[in-house]
Write a structure and sequence with these properties.
about 200 residues, 2 domains, 7 helices, alpha/beta, 4 strands
């Protein structure tokens, strides 16, 4: 009789995508899916390392599985995915700093152009929000149409997400130098632009 697995997902659409990939690997290993934790030989809880509510649900669920094991005498293997993997996660810190510098410089450029407070709404609505939706923060970029994917790959956040997600998952992406180069180029260009625009505005 084949062993069975249960995968539970807490978090965003990106977590659902990761769960589907894990399910495929377990299927290839000969396991069968089940919806009942009493039948499962392996329980995988895929959670989010960012949202506090997802983390709270995780601890509650682990307690429930422990009580179930005490009641039935059957203890499946329980695995938790979605938390940061060390020591690679430490490498994400300088990447996050670089991302912060990039968007700080972009923000300074917008500040130099702003004629009033409402101007920042355009920056948030027309630039930051679409970029967040297209850069793999919430949804897998592989599901985007080819033209939209090409646009996403030209955005700085896409390269930051690709780097940080891989590092938190315990791997270093093979194209890491490219991602770093794109982020650095955006940071330098935006900083230069912010310097020019700010100086011009102050000298008016």
């Amino acid at each position: 009789m084949a062993k069975r697995y249960l995968i539970e997902t807490f978090g965003c659409q990106m977590n659902v995508h990761d769960s589907e990939r894990m399910a495929g690997l377990l299927d290839q290993a000969g396991y069968e899916p089940t919806d009942d934790e009493r039948d499962a030989d392996i329980v995988v809880i895929n959670t989010c390392s960012v949202r506090e509510h997802a983390e709270e649900k995780l601890y509650t669920r682990l307690g429930e599985l422990r009580v179930l094991g005490d009641d039935t005498g059957r203890r499946p293997i329980v695995a938790v995915a979605g938390f940061a993997s060390f020591p690679h996660a430490l490498l994400a810190i300088p990447v996050v700093v670089l991302i912060g510098l990039t968007f700080a410089a972009l923000g300074l450029s917008v500040n130099a152009l702003a004629s009033g407070y409402d101007f920042f709404s355009y920056y948030m609505t027309l630039f930051l929000t679409p970029m967040t939706m297209l850069s793999g923060v919430f949804f897998p970029v592989e599901q985007l149409p080819a033209a939209i994917l090409a646009l996403a790959q030209a955005l700085p956040l896409y390269h930051g997400v690709e780097l940080v997600r891989a590092l938190l998952g315990g791997t270093i992406p093979g194209n890491a130098p490219l991602h770093l180069a794109v982020l650095a180029a955006y940071a330098l260009a935006a900083f230069y632009l912010a310097t020019v625009l700010t100086r011009r505005r102050l000298l008016k």
